[in-house]
Amino acid sequence: MITNTGKQIIGRYLVGLTDTYASHLVLGCGPKPLSSTEPFADYASKTSMDFEMIRVPITSRNIVTESGATTVIFTAELPTTERYGITEIGVYPSVANPTPVGSDSKSLALFSFGENWKYHTSGGTITDVPEQTGNITDTNNNITIADDSFFTTSENALFENVNNPARITKHEQPRYLSSVLLMRGDTSSLTVNGNDLSASGNHIHLETTDLGISQNSSDDEIRLAFSVINKDGVDNSNVPSPDVPSNIKVLVQFAHTDGASPEYASFVVNLNNGTNINTQTPTGTTNITMTTANAHNISVGQKVTLSGLTPSAYNGTWTAQSGTTGSTLVLDIGYNPGAITVAGRATSETQHNFTNNRYVVAKKTMGSLYKTAGFAWADVRYIKVFVDAEDTLGSAAASDFYIALDALRIENVSSFNNKYGLTAYTVVKSSDSLPITKLNNTKSFIEFKFVVDVL
User: Exposed/middle/buried for 306, CB within 10 Å: 0-12, 13-18, 19+?
Assistant: First the structure.
């Protein structure tokens, strides 16, 4: 779909005010892929990828007639050596924004073998995060590694085991490149402290030079991509069990030092699992009242996403209205779609549907991060990561899960340039609702098509 930004860029291109509207295809890994029967959403207001992995130059441009419609086709060749799990594709008029204020969008950490991540115990012992490139599971696909934190490959048998397809269908597999850093859910202990998290226990850290983002706008975003992985291979998610996390906390600290009481900024992820909406007949005409299976922890004014419901008119993102409390949920849907015949799920801005989708992209503006009084971005020399998981049985710091860290980046969303921006965008659609995977050491091409006729 051509975005609203794209329409402006194409308009300027047509009257000669810019050289191009499409020079690069951009591959991302953020959203959940669509199944072949799911409709595309309206992406007109999209201004950036959910989580960008790579930009590749468009090498071929064609116009063909398909099903009676004139279609523009852009083709690009993907790098041979890398691996990507692609769930979104975008079109940009340049490889980079030529006039950014502060740093342009870029990766801050890839959690890969080549990065010098250290494991730091609460007792002060610092060691290299170990690499586990062989099989890390037993015959039941249970993770058997004793280390709290370790590197492994994204193609490990853990994610490919046909005896545990739930790992695949729930999107546990990392997507960005070929390596990933796993941290067990009881590595750290994290407690909510205002808009920060108090951390204790073990963590990992990466010593770094100046991140180069001290001049970025407070509106620019830090984004973290990760997935949640079950330790045990048996899927018991349909019965009371710890197989589905009830809460995932991740704390990324950008710190001046690695010692005690450093100056730091906190990127906080604190996601609950959301709740079911069972079959029922909601009431109301504009603000629709329905009941959730459990206390939903949703506040008035929050955005709430409904999914999996029939009638499908319920599915979408709505705002919680007055009267939302306990297990009562009031949403401004605009009209009453009628009786719910197929149950679904409600998740708010502070929640994530871990039952069906273990891949997460969390984002915060730089200005919203908690910062100590003496913190300065130019003085950051350490990136620290703490993780804490809870299971459905209420066990804090649960060892039942691992957090698979995929990548950390900054997204410059504040530098306006009327010749640059996301021209077109789509979420990947596949028959099995899984990412399109470009494997290591393979030669691949990718196409982006859009119809230019008015139908």
Answer: buried
User: What span, in angstroms and rounded, lies between the C-alpha atoms of 339 and 353?
Assistant: 23
258, 151, 149, 259: which is closest to 205 by C-alpha?
258
pTM of the entire predicted model: 0.89
At 316, the amino acid letter reads G
Residue 36 neighbours by CB distance under 10 Å: 9
CA 154, 158, 163, 166 torsion: positive or negative? negative
At a CB cut-off of 8 Å and minimum separation 6, what does 298 contact? Answer: 304, 320, 324, 329, 346, 348, 351
Helix (H) or strand (E) holding 213: none
Handedness of CA 115, 121, 126, 130 (dihedral sign): negative
One-letter amino acid at 170 equals K
Residue 337 preceded by cis peptide, ω within 30: no
Tokens coding 226: 């990760």
10 Å Cβ neighbour count for 402? 29
Tell me how far apart the alpha carbons of residues 190 and 270 are, in angstroms, rounded to a whole number: 10
- Residue type present at position 427: V
Q: Which residue has the tokens 């116009």?
A: 63
* Residuewise pLDDT in 10s, the chain (455 residues): 899 999 999 999 999 999 999 999 999 999 999 988 888 888 999 999 999 999 999 999 999 888 788 888 999 999 999 999 999 999 999 999 888 888 899 999 999 998 999 999 999 999 999 999 888 988 888 899 999 999 999 988 888 766 677 888 899 999 999 999 999 999 999 999 888 999 999 999 999 988 999 999 999 999 999 999 999 886 554 444 458 888 999 999 999 998 777 899 999 999 988 888 999 999 999 999 999 988 888 989 988 989 889 998 998 889 999 999 999 999 999 999 999 999 988 988 888 888 889 999 999 999 999 999 999 999 999 999 999 998 865 556 688 899 999 999 999 999 988 889 999 999 999 988 999 999 888 989 999 988 876 55
Count of residues making up the chain:
455
- Cα distances (angstroms) measured from residue 316 to each of 278, 312, 323: 17, 9, 20
| Residues 406, 409, 413, 419, Cα dihedral to 10° | -90
How far is the C-alpha of 95 from the C-alpha of 88, rounded, in Å?
A: 17
Task: Give the residue carrying structure tokens 């973290």.
Answer: 224
Cα–Cα dist 47/3, whole Å: 8
